[in-house]
Amino acid sequence: MAPVNQVEVVVAHDERATLRVGDVFLKIDSDQTRIDVEIEAMTLAPIPTPRVLWREPPVLALAAVPGTALGRLGEPSPASPAAWAAAGAAVRKLHGAPLPPWPGKRLDELAARLDGECEWLVTNGVLPTDVITRNRQIAEAALRPWTPVFMHGDLQITHVFVDDDQITGVIDWSEAAQGDALYDLAVLTLGHEEHLGGVLTGYGTDVDLDVIRGWWSWRSLVAARWLVEHGFDPSLPGCEFDVLRSRMRGHTAP
Asked: Which residue numbers delimit the Aminoglycoside phosphotransferase domain (predicted)?
């Protein structure tokens, strides 16, 4: 093994931490159930995923995937339109795979979580009430029955890696479950709505854009408290609060 010059802290908070040591990622998680899900989901997924090197609870060691992430929330994506279309095609392949054997969140659980997080946002004055109310209304479009698919569950652009316009790996599978296909598409394009058309070109089927918009609002509303309490800033330019405010300007997806 090549000599290691440094240890990089990729992310760290009171639930889990990820370190990079050379070409190895070490995931340290307080909840081993999440690690169980991650390993099994990567085994079942029909798209490129990190290679499991070893597991010694509470640590999971994964090989780094080649390429670079599609981008970061709050920053312009360096990826080409072809790379975004390739991401859409990969997501479609995942959604067409057999369902994982464990269920996802029920519709009533998602609705209750939205209610609770909106109440917290209002009570704590985190955002103007009209912004919360409007996005709560938009989120209703997402809270409808769906045909479950094999859903990644946390398909942020930082979790999708590309090289030469090809998908080289999708990481962080701890939220994978049976769920709504449009939730994955919404999380992938959150804050990068200009790339939704390219993703849908690769995905290859018609989708309900109102549902995508609903999941953008739902995700941004329910993530806010967790982000604040774990040392992240959803008010940074282009991040969750800007996504919510954009609904007030009547901005729509392509």
From this structure: 41-203
Burial, 23: exposed, middle or buried (Cβ in 10 Å; 0-12, 13-18, 19+)? middle
> At a CB cut-off of 8 Å and minimum separation 6, what does 27 contact?
16, 17, 18, 35, 38, 59, 60, 61, 62
Q: Give me the amino acid identity at 154.
A: D
Which residue ranges make up each domain of the chain? 65-248
Over residues 44-56, mean pLDDT: 97
Q: Specify the DSSP element, H or E, that contains 179.
A: strand 177-179
User: How far is it, in rounded angstroms, from Cα 235 to Cα 97?
Assistant: 36
User: What does the pLDDT read at residue 5?
Assistant: 64
Measured in whole angstroms, the distance separating CA 244 from the mean position of its chain's CA atoms is 17
The span from the CA of 77 to the CA of 73, in Å, is 9
Q: Which CATH architecture has domain 65-248?
A: Alpha-Beta Complex (3.90)
Distance, in Å, from the CA atom of 212 to the CA atom of 33, rounded to the nearest integer, reads 29
Taking Cα atoms as reference points, which of 184, 229, 218 lies closest to residue 203? 184
Per-residue pLDDT tens for 101-141?
Answer: 999 999 999 999 999 999 999 999 999 999 999 999 999 99
* Token pair belonging to 2: 């090549």
Residue found by looking up tokens 């704590």 in the block: 124
Positive or negative: CA dihedral 201, 205, 209, 215: negative
